[in-house]
Each structure stands twice: as C-alpha cells, then as structure tokens.
C-alpha cells in the first residue's frame, strides 16, 4: 500500500500575493494526480493532515519558538517575532500560520508512522519538505521543519535513515538536526551556496563526532544539466546508499532544480527527475517522500505527479488531460506535455570541472567513513 496526503485543506493558507511560495500549487498537483486517475491507483490510500502535537514538535524545535509561532497564528504582530526570523519577507506571519506549519508537520510525521507500522511502503506528503526551519527560528519560507521531524520519528524508533534532498537549496535544517549522529545519512544535492540561499552546504561540511562522514553535500555550479545530475546519482548518491544500507528512505523532492525555476539556476529535466524517482522506487525500501521547493508551478505539478505515478509503478502518458489544463489556466499555468521537451544540452565545462573536484573530494573524505549497520 502507498499513501498520499491530500493537501487540499492547506489551500486556505496564503503567504501573500507577492511571495513566490504559492500554496495553490498543492491543489493543482493533487488535481493532476486525480486527472490521471492516480488517487484511485490500486495500491493507493489517502491520508488527511492533522496538526503535530507539542511533544512531536519538541523533537526538533524549542518551546520558546513554538510559543511565539503559536501567538502569531492570528496574523498580527506579537513581541519577539523578529528574534525568531518571523514576520520577514521570506517568513511572513499570516492568519493560520501555526495551523499551516503544524499541519504540514503532522502529515509528514504520519507518513513516517505509516511506514514504520507497515501500513504503507511509500508515503508521500506533497506539502512537506520544508527543510530550512531551525530549532529556534524560521528560514527560507519554512516555519516548522517537517522533514527533520519525520526523520526524527524514524530515528527515535531505532531505524537507520537515509535522507536524500535534491531541492536547489541546501537542506540545512535537516543536516543541522543530525550532524552528530550516524543514525541518519543526509545527502543534499543543491545549487552552490555561494550563489543562492542559505549560503551553506559546501563539500567540507561532513558531520561531527559520531556523524563524521554522514553529512554529504554536493554543491552544483549554476547551469548544471542532466549530465551533471546523472553523474551525481551514479557516482555519489546510489553508491553511498549501497554502503550505508538504510532501513528507511526519506526524500525531499524539491522541484526548483528543474530548468525554468523562478528562483534557482539549475537545469534538470522532468525526464531526469522521473528517472531518479524510478531508481529510488527500485530500491524497494520503506520510503517517506516529501515535496519541497519549486517556484514554476507547471514544473512542480508535473514533477510530483510523475513521482506519484512511478511510486505506484505506473508510466503516465505524456499528454496532460484537458480537464486539468482548463483548471490550471486561470492560475497562468499553461502546459500540455507531462515531461516537456527533451533536453540534450550538456552542462558547461566549468560546471563539470567543479563537479569533478567535488566528487573526488567526497570519495576521499566521506566514502571511507560511511558504514552499514
């Protein structure tokens, strides 16, 4: 059985007209999944979100921060907002902000529990993957770090977890949570931190103490295309998974690494994204999948629909149903092909030369440290 979180209860929350994070992308993605008949796939079950409890949130976040975020739920100014990086352009407070953040977190925690309890082999929270929030402050459009909480749920149950993050932005909050333990192997493939938020995720960040070698970062120079991503998957991600042999897989499937994103400057194709998900499914591991970034809504909806199809062993036709195209048009989303045009353009030489250095460094400094249980 594979579980999908129904995100439509989140559509009432709004980061603001000029904020790049659009919650309507969740509704359009779920609608595209329905248009392809995937919500009723033979192995599919639907999960409804519920708020994470205080006890669950305290597995990563500090009580003082949670209290300020709770007070901010009215959307009004409250004391100490700015000391927690709240009320900024990136991390606005809006009516229901606490309900939004804890609802996303509760859904990701329930995905982890469904996998733990054997009720699902794969559980996918489209709204999740908000990987930047830190214990005591919001960051990068993320108020609560549902990804860290999902991994913590699995680690506290005694599982060894591989966390794979392909968002264009470094998965800094999750790395921070597990930087000193070997119970979670965190791998983040992202745009170089010299060129994009959060300015971290360099190859020398490899963990501390028992976690030394279990934080892996693959920064990519802007302009990286499918050939660069394929090399990363072939030479770093899947070899490290073979070495680590996790009990459970957690992935952050941010769609902002795709070509055409409004915020990032990478160039993965939808076909490459789909191939990556196909390879993950073939590992046959218990798998918690989370959404993440993505600021071209057409890319987001197509990528996560392709992912859910592959999780269910279904290869979807490339022609997008007309009913969905009609529904998406009022949002300015106009796409007719699920995978888009083939992208054969190679990465610039400077990208591949930098990647050579990164892979050589990881093979020397990280690979010898990663061990199976």
Describe it for me?
The protein has 373 residues and is α/β, with parallel strands linked by helices. It has a domain at 2-165 and 246-340: Arginase, Chain A (3-Layer(aba) Sandwich). It has eleven helices and eight strands. Strands 2-1-3-8-7-4-5-6 form an eight-stranded parallel β-sheet, sandwiched between helices. Strand 4 (161-165), helix 6 (172-177) and strand 5 form a beta-alpha-beta unit.
Q: What attributes characterize this protein structure?
A:
373 residues; alpha/beta; Arginase, Chain A; eight-stranded parallel beta sheet; 11 helices; 8 strands
Rg calculated over all Cα atoms: 19 Å
Runs in which pLDDT lies below 50 for 5 or more consecutive residues are none
Number of helices: 11
| Total beta strand runs | 8
How helix-rich are the residues, as a percent range?
25-40%
Which CATH top level class of the domain at 2-165 and 246-340 fits? Answer: Alpha Beta
What fold name goes in the CATH topology slot of the domain at 2-165 and 246-340?
Answer: Arginase, Chain A
Q: Quick one: biggest sheet?
A: 8 strands, parallel
**Annotated CATH architecture of the domain at 2-165 and 246-340:** 3-Layer(aba) Sandwich
**Proportion of beta-strand residues:** 5-15%
In one word, what is the shape? Answer: globular
Order of helices and strands: EHEHHHEHEHEEHEHEHHH
N- and C-termini, Cα separation: 27 Å
Mean pLDDT: 96
Strand-pairing-aware structural class: alpha/beta
Could you give the order of strands across the largest sheet?
2-1-3-8-7-4-5-6
Q: Determine the CATH superfamily of the domain at 2-165 and 246-340.
A: Histone deacetylase domain
């Amino acid at each position: 059985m594979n579980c999908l979180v129904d995100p439509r209860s989140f559509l009432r929350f709004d980061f603001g007209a000029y904020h790049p994070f659009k919650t309507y992308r969740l509704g359009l993605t779920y609608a595209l999944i329905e248009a392809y008949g995937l919500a009723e796939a033979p192995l599919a079950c639907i999960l409804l979100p519920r708020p994470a409890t205080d006890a669950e949130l305290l597995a990563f976040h500090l009580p003082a921060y949670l209290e300020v975020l709770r007070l901010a739920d009215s959307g009004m100014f409250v004391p100490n907002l700015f000391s927690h990086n709240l009320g900024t352009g990136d991390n606005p407070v809006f009516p229901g902000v606490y309900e939004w953040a804890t609802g996303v977190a509760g859904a990701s925690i329930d995905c982890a529990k469904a996998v733990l309890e054997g009720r699902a082999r794969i559980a996918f929270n489209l709204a999740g993957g908000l990987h930047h929030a830190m214990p005591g402050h919001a960051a990068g459009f993320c108020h609560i770090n549902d990804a860290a909480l999902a991994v913590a749920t699995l680690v506290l149950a005694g599982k060894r977890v591989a966390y794979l993050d392909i968002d264009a932005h470094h998965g800094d909050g999750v790395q921070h949570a597990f930087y000193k333990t070997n119970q979670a192997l965190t791998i983040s493939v992202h745009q170089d931190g010299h060129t994009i938020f959060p300015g971290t995720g360099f190859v020398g960040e490899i963990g501390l103490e028992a976690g030394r070698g279990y934080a892996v970062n693959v920064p990519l120079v802007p302009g990286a295309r499918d050939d660069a991503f394929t090399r990363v998957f072939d030479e770093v991600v899947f070899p490290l998974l073979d070495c680590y042999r996790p009990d459970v897989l957690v992935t952050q499937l941010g769609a902002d690494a795709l070509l055409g994103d409004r915020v990032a400057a990478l160039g993965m194709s939808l076909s490459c994204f789909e191939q990556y998900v196909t390879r993950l499914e073939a590992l046959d591991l218990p798998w918690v999948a989370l959404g993440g970034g993505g600021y071209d809504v057409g890319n987001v909806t197509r990528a996560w629909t392709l992912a859910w199809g592959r999780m269910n062993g279904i290869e979807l036709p490339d022609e997008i149903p007309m009913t969905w195209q009609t529904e998406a048009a009022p949002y300015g989303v106009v796409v007719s092909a699920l995978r888009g045009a083939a992208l054969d353009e190679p990465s610039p030489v400077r990208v591949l030369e930098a990647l050579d250095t990164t892979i050589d460094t990881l093979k020397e400094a990280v690979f010898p440290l990663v061990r199976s249980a």
